[in-house]
Amino acid sequence: TGCFDVEAVRRDFPQLHREVNGRPLVWLDNGATTLKPRQVVEAVGEHYASGTSNVHRGAHALAKQATQIYEEGRAEAAKVLGAPDPDEIVFVRGTTEAVNLVAQTWGRANLGVGDEILVSAAEHHSNLVPWQLIAKERRARIVPVPLLPDGQLDQDAYRDLLGFRTKLVALTHASNVLGTVPPVAEMTALAHRYGAKVLVDGAQAVAHFPVDVTALDADFYAFSGHKVFGPTGIGALYGKRELLEAMPPWQGGGNMIDSVSFDETSYAPVPHRLEAGTGHIGGVAGLRAALRYLSGLDRRAATAHEEQLTAYATAALRTVPGLRLIGEAPGKIGVLTFLLAGTDPIALAGALDQQGIAIRAGHHCAQPALAAYGLQAAARASLALYNTVQDVDSLVAALQGIQAEAAAS
Ligand code: PMP
């Protein structure tokens, strides 16, 4: 596939070269988490083996070095999102914590009785439940933006639902169940006409195509390190500076203050004001390495490789008798959700696992999206830039075998 050297990339990912159940691992569970290149493993190892220190405190060489790596990690996160200023990046545990932070601070300060939060029906539970929690507290309303049968959001409905009561639109940049990529820039521009803010969930986007929050004009944008070849437990929230500055603190503690007394406490400037306590320094070391790894690749070629592989996989899966793909809108990322007639999705994933093929089955933390198709569970193969035609062929051959067995019994 083009000039993208997938074999060279695969050599960087040690886990791709292990076996599971006596068979070479075929990792098609990238929607759940991505594998790590050795550059990330080494960066995390180095932090703990010889670079351990807290950051922003302690006048010694290791504190300075750790602080530098930490702040370079922030700059890498800004760069991968196209954010103009690293101080617009708040470190969080992941996408889930990013959304909760915005809901609990911005939401508590800005939502009132009867206000509306538009939540797309494609959202992961992490971009829905935090809004339900704050909506209940503030007596605001959650309004779903419905899906069309092909997995795209219904733009006519969206236009009708937007109004001056809309305060926030919660929108995924790529659905983890349907793979669909909504027109975020257009939807954001429409929301802004009503003065509403837009929070974009980039958990499934950043690893798969170049992101530019400035071009999107997103107010908030969240992603998880572990889905971009980095460690678990670290992620980033981008927020426009004026929004972050106006947000009340979330958690209180060390690092986030300017001065403290029993009479009065004042807070540090953003982003530190929103980062109470010692951060995940080893995680940031790994995230920095992951984002440097990603930006060292030819991103356009990597995206083209994934697009070609997605088209190949879609066509190949269609050849399996009794297989039904869910969500087939053009421009989708490599998320292939499907049902196989006569087999339960969970049992199907178990049978594939016996052959070393890792996929996910279940509700994918997006029950409303599956419910839109009348489903409670489905199987999902999800691709990343290191997957190959051989991976897809292994999956399809295994599915054909499972299908033939199910048909015979
Ligand atoms: N949003 C989407 C679209 C996701 O796929 C996921 C993870 N499956 C999340 C949010 C939540 O990410 P995390 O669990 O890393 O916080």
Residue-averaged pLDDT, rounded?
96
Taking all Cα atoms into account, the compactness measure Rg is 22 Å
Q: What's the arrangement of strands in the largest beta sheet? A: 4-10-9-8-7-5-6
Low-confidence stretches: none
What is the terminal-to-terminal distance? 39 Å
Strand content: 15-25%
TL;DR of this structure?
With 409 residues, the chain is α/β, with parallel strands linked by helices.
What does this structure look like?
- By secondary structure, this protein is an alpha/beta fold.
- It is 39% helix and 17% strand.
- It has helices spanning 6-11, 38-49, 61-81, 95-110, 129-138, 155-161, 184-193, 213-216, 241-246, 281-295, 299-318, 345-353, 367-371, 389-408, and strands at residues 19-20, 23-24, 26-27, 89-92, 116-120, 141-145, 166-172, 197-201, 220-224, 235-239, 257-260, 265-267, 323-326, 335-340, 357-358, 360-362, 378-382.
- The longest helix is centred in the N-terminal third of the chain and has 21 residues, at 61-81.
- GO terms for molecular function: cysteine desulfurase activity; pyridoxal phosphate binding.
- It holds the Pfam family Aminotran_5.
- Residues 26-395 form the Aminotransferase class V domain.
- Belongs to the class-V pyridoxal-phosphate-dependent aminotransferase family. Csd subfamily.
